[in-house]
Amino acid sequence: MMERLTGAERQIALMICVVMAIVGLVMAAAGRGDPMGSHGAIVLIAAGIVTCFVLRAIGEPEPAEDRTTSYYDDPTKAGLVIALFWAVVGMGMGVWVAAQLAWPDLRFDAAWSSFGRIRPVHTSGVIFGFGGNALIATSYHVMQRTSRARLAGHVSPWFVLLGFNLFCIVAASGYLMGVTQSKEYAEPEWYADIWLVIVWVVYFVLYIRTLARRNEPHIYVANWYYLAFILVVAILHIVNNLAVPASLTGAKSYSAFAGVQDAMTQWWYGHNAVAFFLTAGFLGMLYYFLPKRAERPIYSYRLSILSFWGIVFFYIWAGSHHLHYTALPQWVQTLGMTFSVMLLVPSWASAGNALMTLNGAWHKVRDDATLRFMMVAAVFYGLSTFEGSFMAVRAVNSLSHYTDWTVGHVHAGAMGWVALITFGSIYSVVPLLWKRETMYSWKLVEWHFWLALAGTVIYVFAMWNSGIVQGLMWRTYTDSGTLAYSFTDTLVAMHPYYVARACGGALFLTGAILAAYNVYMTIRHAPEKRPERDYPTSSEATEPAVPAAE
Amino acid sequence: MDLTHDLTSVIAKSFGLFYLIALSVGITVYAYWPSLGKRFDKAANSILDDEDGPCR
């Protein structure tokens, strides 16, 4: 793939690799005896692998293609394949974690395989590995198409994609070694955080420069969502990870905030990670791929603008609903609760807009599993945002908080909404990018759809039951005013639901494996699509004398 | 002047309220401004046929 870079671009890529290798070497030397040293070795190996790819292309002749006539899709293709790899890894870890909760012996007595270490591998693997790579890849696709402009630069898209994956690998390997700063969804330590800032700034600049080249006066709304995702995630990431390293040669750092301020900063980050990583970016996907696949424009473009600004300005204030009944001032809790309830308006506006777009094309939803993925994703988006607003109400939260209901809610969003819209987008974009007629097997897409839906429904219902049972048992008192159930009693009551949850997750994982196989076979074996052009071909033999329809 | 909890809460309860109301009004006016309708329709339809390659 590096053969399509010019000689100068190959040299820049090589220089970046050399700098990375030196950074890795310094980290490995300075941090020996600490997990940071192992991370240095990982950085060094990653830089070495990319160097090999660049070196193989460095002596090749300059590319002959005319760059003004086509979009630059190589990084998109690589990103989609990597996303599917992470999907299988991340969801596989999820099934293992779920199985450990039902059958604790599955830990096999190793330190690295304890719940506290592999659970963040699951969450980061699916959110950042699967979701993040899918977002980066589809954003490259969407920004070029909606701007009618090729990517601004050929090295920076690769830098962003590969740099982001280096962050994911450092994060996941760190968790297994016990490296964490104990902030949910922001576990990686300081040097990984600094690296992500560099990658993210390059991503933002790339997006803005591509938009600046656009040929359309109006920026299509999907780009607004992607841009909000990039910009706000940068702000959140920087503020929440403000920390002082205990030593420059070790992984350990201490947060710049203390006490309830630290908790508030973390959940301001945490909830906005849901809002801008898991919602805004995927709404960008929804607003591009759903109308495209249904071959109908979005039902109301005006409504999409309203819901965009609603989501941006409401979500930012909702994070404090994670801290009901804590040391956080009461009015800040109420503020978070109020904004969470108000969020229902822009959320349902988007979900309704998507479903109304399909109104009149239901036969396509019936026949086309790819479009059905997106339709069900919009339904789950509506369901989980309603549930989220409801759970943010303080009285409801007193029952739901710290129980499995929260876990069920997150997975209704992550599996039902985020993963389904991503798979729908992948199935619609893969044949296009690799110039295939269709996916290798539509039956596998159909199988994947029903496995994913069944898995999500089983998972979510199991966790609803488990969470509400757990919450009620925790608050049941005897006549003498003591708790009626011990903690162990609740675990026994939850066990069947934990088994059901592991089964639901396994179904979902099976679907993801089918997707990865289907995409691989599409790339390798599906028949190539012959381009239809509306100008005469050079060969007169293949040109009908009169267009067939007349 | 110190940035105390009381001061932040007063700002949040006064200025915070009004700027959010102003934003909502501004955005609604923009989204429903009649003469922008054509531009929005064009944008909504622009994605349906965009595989013919970049213009630059």
UniProtKB/TrEMBL annotation, chain A:
Cellular component terms per the entry's GO annotation: plasma membrane
Cofactor: Cu(2+); heme b; heme
Pathway: Energy metabolism; oxidative phosphorylation
GO molecular function, one term: cytochrome-c oxidase activity
Subcellular location: Cell membrane
Binding of Cu cation, residues: 271, 321-322
SUPFAM superfamilies: Cytochrome c oxidase subunit I-like
Catalytic activity entry: 4 Fe(II)-[cytochrome c] + O2 + 8 H(+)(in) = 4 Fe(III)-[cytochrome c] + 2 H2O + 4 H(+)(out)
Protein name as it appears in the record: cytochrome-c oxidase
UniProtKB/TrEMBL annotation, chain B:
Key word Transmembrane helix present: yes
CDD domains: cbb3_Oxidase_CcoQ
A Pfam entry, by short name: FixQ
Assigned keywords, A-Z: Membrane, Transmembrane, Transmembrane helix
Superkingdom as given in the UniProt entry: Bacteria
UniProt-listed InterPro entries: Cbb3-typ_cyt_oxidase_comp
Membrane-spanning ranges: 15-33
Protein's UniProt keywords contain Membrane: yes
Name used for this protein in its record: Cytochrome c oxidase subunit CcoQ
